[in-house]
Design a protein that fits this description.
Creatine Amidinohydrolase, 4-stranded antiparallel beta sheet, 5-stranded antiparallel beta sheet, alpha+beta
């Protein structure tokens, strides 16, 4: 069952979303050649704690860090490290969740480390635009399949791999709630969205195959052809006549 959130609950989630957005904003200046992924993690954790929130990912099912720091062919769930330094031409998606008074918000952004290959730049551009194509369909009364189809229909002409091993999701008192939200679908299918539902929409797109494998650490998911992948995400409140993004400043 997809939970409907009260306005009180949504206000708590909006505060969590504000802090997530602060972290992603800070990453714009922090992501540069020579920086370690653990340094990025520590910046985000400091912002979260100083703003009265809790880093939701840290300790979640054993995950050891505050952010997922996924570089190049890592699709999702990359573990920050003091040994991993970013270099010019890399891309890194920073995915994080924080909670305020027990309510979560979740977002992700893929950053360029200096100048990147034009083909990689296009991958990021398409993935981010696909996110907003999906978001644009959100309002009470539409089928979830309309949102999913908008994402997939935007990506497919480019021939990229649409990751299907991971999905978007509902969010609230738990980091992951119903429904699962795929990045492709069929219009007019799936549950009908209602005002007060809160959704995490997050296209993950690979330059090559959509197939992934998880490394021996049990978390890090990489494309099997080692081609780069991009990932963008926002937490969205379904409103009567549209939507509200709560993870942007």
């Amino acid at each position: 069952m997809i939970e409907i959130k009260s306005e009180r609950e949504i206000q708590l989630m909006k505060e969590a979303g504000r802090v997530v957005a602060l972290c992603l904003e800070a990453m714009k200046d922090a992501v540069k050649p020579g920086v370690t992924t653990m340094e990025l993690n520590n910046i985000c954790e400091k912002i979260i704690v100083e703003n009265g929130c809790v880093p939701s990912c840290k300790g979640y099912e054993g995950f050891p860090a505050t952010i997922c720091a996924s570089v190049n062919e890592v699709v999702v769930h990359g573990i920050p490290s003091n040994k991993q330094k970013l270099k010019k031409g890399d891309i890194i998606d920073v995915d994080l969740v924080c909670a305020y008074k027990g309510y979560h918000a979740d977002a992700c952004y893929t950053y360029k480390v200096g100048e990147v290959n034009p083909k990689v730049e296009e991958l990021l551009d398409v993935t981010q635009k696909a996110l907003y194509e999906g978001i644009s369909k959100v309002r009470a009364g539409v089928h979830l399949g309309d949102v999913e189809a908008a994402i997939g229909d935007y990506i497919k002409p480019y021939g990229y791999g649409i990751i299907d091993s991971f999905t978007g999701h509902g969010i609230g008192r738990k980091m992951h709630e119903e429904p699962n939200i795929f990045n492709f679908g069929t219009k007019g299918t799936g549950p009908i969205l209602e005002e007060g539902m809160v959704l995490c929409i997050e296209p993950m797109v690979a330059m090559g195959t959509h197939k992934i494998r998880v490394l021996s650490d049990g978390w890090t998911a990489v494309t099997i052809d080692k081609k780069p992948a991009a990932h963008f995400e926002h937490t969205i409140v379904v409103r009567k006549d549209g939507y509200e993004i709560i993870t942007q400043l």
